[in-house]
Design a protein that fits this description.
The chain is built from one helix and ten strands. It has 112 residues and is mainly beta. The mean pLDDT is 95.
Length: 112
């Protein structure tokens, strides 16, 4: 993922959300303008996936799909989703870099 002037890698959680991982992987790359909500970066995507092991709780570094959006969410702090999400990936390191992101910044999510 590339946002502003930094890049991070995420690891897919294929055992937890195989359908979500597959749908997101097939739809990549994404290039979008981000929104910031508390300590979360998110943007709308055209992928449609049913709730899969949805959780109302996240932690910093979680990458989640929000079925109600539908949205792609990156949690970089203590914020929690407004409704359950499919957490399908985890940022390996550097999640704190998202603290500099601002609404309107561009993000690219691509396969490594």
């Amino acid at each position: 993922m590339v946002c502003r002037d930094f890049e991070v890698e995420a690891e897919l959680l294929e055992k937890l959300c195989p359908n979500t991982c597959d749908a997101i992987w097939k739809a990549l790359p994404f290039d979008a303008e981000v929104e910031i909500w508390k300590e979360e970066v998110y943007f709308e995507i055209s992928v449609k996936v049913e709730p899969e092991n949805p959780t109302p709780k996240t932690q910093a570094g979680d990458v989640s799909y929000w079925p109600q959006g539908p949205g792609f969410c990156i949690f970089f702090g203590r914020s929690q989703p407004v409704s359950p999400v499919n957490t399908f990936a985890r940022i390996k390191s550097g999640v704190e870099k998202f603290r500099v992101a601002r609404t309107g910044d561009r993000i690219t999510v691509r396969r490594a």
